[in-house]
Design goal:
It comes from Roseivirga misakiensis. The chain has 10 helices and 14 strands. It is α/β, with parallel strands linked by helices. The two termini are 33 Å apart. Bound molecules: 1,4-dihydronicotinamide adenine dinucleotide and oxaloacetate ion (OAA).
Length: 306
Amino acid sequence: MKVTVVGAGAVGASCAEYIALKNFAAEVVLIDIKEGFAEGKAMDLMQTASLNGFDTKITGVTNDYSATAGSDVAVITSGIPRKPGMTREELISTNAGIVKSVASSLIQASPNVIIIVVSNPMDTMTYLVHQATDLPKNRIIGMGGALDSARFKYRLAEALESPISDVDGMVIGGHSDTGMIPLTRLATRNSVPVSEFVSADRLEEVKQETKVGGATLTKLLGTSAWYAPGAAVSAMVQAIANDSNKMFPCSCLLEGEYGLSDISIGVPALIGANGIEQIVEIELSEEEKAALNASADAVRKTNGLI
Ligand SMILES: NC(=O)C1=CN([C@@H]2O[C@H](COP(=O)(O)OP(=O)(O)OC[C@H]3O[C@@H](n4cnc5c(N)ncnc54)[C@H](O)[C@@H]3O)[C@@H](O)[C@H]2O)C=CC1
Ligand SMILES: O=C([O-])CC(=O)C(=O)O
């Protein structure tokens, strides 16, 4: 498999590193607009190969899409990250133009590519790629829910005082500070509902901590996070590479699923060789349905700005 990662910054480089560490891709091309930057990141990462024991070939190029030709998967991380105090939505005016032109260059070089959109505001950027290109809808996936669910599990394990591997949980809805919907009702510790272990008040705290997970890290780091975002993207790329039909909540173009249309938003989907193999419609409670509708309204408002 050949993977292109656009943007060799914090998230792009982390994503390339995790893909290489998992050793499932033959080649990763890092591409950035900043002269020499992707080349430098690629060289630095390749100098970890003998230490970390991977054979993936990582190369870097400055804005030369011919080097990306024949990519099976492309990850778009190009654009600016937020600073403390900002929302993801505030990035739209800079990032929309970047994502639109990058998607078109990627498809020109690799007409059958599967695109994973990471740049924020992610649900709107994913919708923009659907609007601006002719790629079939299963080949455009937004990454948000995989990361938000990993953060949810981290917070759940903290509340339950359990190993993270004991807990399971999923976050659907828009990838925003207010739009995420951590599904506490369905979260479990080894198949036992988490409500058996912690109070409703503590679960509400977990929910709030999860929703502002990105903002919390942005405040601590001065810019947004990269390790968990890179790991989340690499897990999705691996599911495509292995055709594993693995379920991730991710931003999918909806055409009636969950009662929503003409919007990309986080819902559970099976990810395999064709990208989105199937959108999984689960039964939501009335409260969860209302939260998803409110989240969709907010995403539509941001979509109106493109
Ligand atoms: N969906 C999600 O869950 C997450 C999304 N993000 C988003 O990912 C994006 C990247 O974040 P970071 O890597 O931290 O930022 P960064 O600033 O470290 O890296 C971005 C890179 O994009 C490059 N770039 C800008 N315009 C370009 C173009 N036209 N072509 C190629 N490269 C270009 C820049 O030169 C820079 O190296 C941000 O929009 C951030 O909000 C970050 C974390 C999680
Ligand atoms: O918080 C941000 O701006 C970056 C992001 O989407 C995340 O880490 O969830």
